[in-house]
Amino acid sequence: MEDHEGNTTRFLVMSREADHSRRGGKGMMTSFVFRVRNIPAALYKALGGFATNGVNMTKLESYMVGGRFSATQFYAEVEGHPEDPPLFRALEELDYFSDKLHLMGVFPAARLRHEG
């Protein structure tokens, strides 16, 4: 029998109107999609602001736009709220180096993130 300890099931709650409010007393998570052109170092440049502002990226997934190699879209999750100065600055830099940036959601971080 396989050991499934540590696996977590995630659920997505969607709404027509975006809710980027801060909820709960613990940390927040922010999810977003962005697109970079297919040029050398595009992803490196786009993500540099997260490193220089000390923002932890917990998920990064890539998708070809329209099934072609001309552009790549990414889904990402980071620790923090868009109004937090470090994440605000990182998203500003990402927007500068991206063709598209769209916040998908803001949600309280799981309790497991705060257990050490």
From TrEMBL:
<dbReference type="InterPro" id="IPR002912">
    <property type="entry name" value="ACT_dom"/>
</dbReference>
<dbReference type="GO" id="GO:0004664">
    <property type="term" value="F:prephenate dehydratase activity"/>
</dbReference>
<dbReference type="InterPro" id="IPR045865">
    <property type="entry name" value="ACT-like_dom_sf"/>
</dbReference>
<protein>
    <submittedName>
        <fullName>Prephenate dehydratase</fullName>
        <ecNumber>4.2.1.51</ecNumber>
    </submittedName>
</protein>
<dbReference type="GO" id="GO:0009094">
    <property type="term" value="P:L-phenylalanine biosynthetic process"/>
</dbReference>
<feature type="domain" description="ACT">
    <location>
        <begin position="31"/>
        <end position="106"/>
    </location>
</feature>
<dbReference type="GO" id="GO:0005737">
    <property type="term" value="C:cytoplasm"/>
</dbReference>
<keyword id="KW-0456">Lyase</keyword>
